[in-house]
Inverse folding.
């Protein structure tokens, strides 16, 4: 579930040497140039009402006069497959360890009171399972554990907290995805503010919020997905308008969302797999629906892995300064800046800052394409007719 956030963070701190080497070996993808006028336009659009039907589809964990806390992150609803693979590898390691210990327990009495009994088989089994167990454990700790922590042995959810009193937004992420970040509300842009900022169709994607580098404070944009995957752009508008009105106008007049518990109930693992797909199911053909019924055991397996993932994670906890932010007499958390990162990370963020920097000024207008071909002013004789001699041309006529 943290895979997209991890890849995004790696892009921010990717060493320049590795980036240059990769671009030399592969065809360089042309990046779309961003201008300051683009950021200003998106910021102005985010300040305007998006619709007249604000509504949050959740999951919402806290909702009161000052705090709105929601689930965030991409593919949170699709977690489970990595958990199943990880638990399979862990089971193999434990099985090898059990068989090795079992064989060693048989060998120990033989060495203490040896009376000529054969021990070659037990010695081979003990050596084999011990080698397999230690080797698999070493490979898993070196290469596999980092992927396991996308779904297990980490915070149960990625969270985003909107504090109306301090006019701040807090992102709760593991350190390998960028860590906990404090951002200003006034610098946010959204895919729900206007259709031209949303992905075409908006099918299967949650609402995304973006802070340009000038507001993020660490020389790179902050990009986060919020809530459930949407079936259409209207749902993105409703979700964004709910958040905007809460922060700008307050909770008065907003429909109270359903509060979701952090406890890992089973239905929290199986129902998210169908987020953003209800419209697709309704409009699909009978053959497609039959195919979905046939592969329903796969949904059951992934849902089981999702549930195991929830149970093997812990409830995310905010730092004390963020928990108390907005209370009388309590300090306001400072915005995250470049100085909050280790020196090595700061150097990489500075090296890659040019990738996200907006060009000054306004985006130049596109030149209208004009056809290079001249329009014919009179009906001309075809080329074929011109090439035919006059005598033949006259002889063919009646």
């Amino acid at each position: 579930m943290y895979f997209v956030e991890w890849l995004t963070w790696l892009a921010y701190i990717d060493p320049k040497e590795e980036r240059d080497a990769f671009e030399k070996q592969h065809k360089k993808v042309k990046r779309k140039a961003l201008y300051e006028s683009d950021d200003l336009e998106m910021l102005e659009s985010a300040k305007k009402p998006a619709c007249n039907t604000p509504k949050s589809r959740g999951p919402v964990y806290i909702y009161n006069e000052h705090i709105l806390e929601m689930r965030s992150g991409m593919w949170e609803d699709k977690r489970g497959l990595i958990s199943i693979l990880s638990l399979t590898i862990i089971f193999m390691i434990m099985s090898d360890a059990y068989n090795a210990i079992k064989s060693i327990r048989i060998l120990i009495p033989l060495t203490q009171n040896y009376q000529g009994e054969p021990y070659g088989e037990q010695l081979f089994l003990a050596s084999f399972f011990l080698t397999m167990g230690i080797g698999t454990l070493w490979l898993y700790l070196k290469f596999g554990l980092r992927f396991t922590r996308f779904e297990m042995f980490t915070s149960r959810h990625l969270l985003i907290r909107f504090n109306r009193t301090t006019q701040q937004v807090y992102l709760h992420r593991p350190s390998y995805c960028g860590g906990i970040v404090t951002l200003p509300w006034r610098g946010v842009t959204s895919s729900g503010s206007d259709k031209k900022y949303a992905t075409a169709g908006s099918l299967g994607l949650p609402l995304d919020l973006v802070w340009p580098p000038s507001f993020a404070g660490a020389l790179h944009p902050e990009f986060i997905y919020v809530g459930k995957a949407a079936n259409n752009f209207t749902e993105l508008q409703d979700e964004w308008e709910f958040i905007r009105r809460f922060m700008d106008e307050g909770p008065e007049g907003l429909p109270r969302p359903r509060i979701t518990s952090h406890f890992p109930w089973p239905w929290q693992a199986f129902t998210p797999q169908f987020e953003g797909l209800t419209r697709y199911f309704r409009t699909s053909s009978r053959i497609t629906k039959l195919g979905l019924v046939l592969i329903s055991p796969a949904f059951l397996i992934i849902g089981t892995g999702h549930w195991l993932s929830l149970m093997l994670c812990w409830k995310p906890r905010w730092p004390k300064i963020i928990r108390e932010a907005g209370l009388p007499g309590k300090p306001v958390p400072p915005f995250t800046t470049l100085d909050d990162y280790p020196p090595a990370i700061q150097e990489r963020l500075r090296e890659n800052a040019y990738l996200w920097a907006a060009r000054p000024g306004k985006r130049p207008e596109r030149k209208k394409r004009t056809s290079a071909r001249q329009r014919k002013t009179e009906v001309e004789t075809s080329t074929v007719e011109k090439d035919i001699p006059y005598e033949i041309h006259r002889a063919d006529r009646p």
The radius of gyration is 30 Å. The chain has a mean pLDDT of 84. The first strand starts at residue 60 and ends at 63.
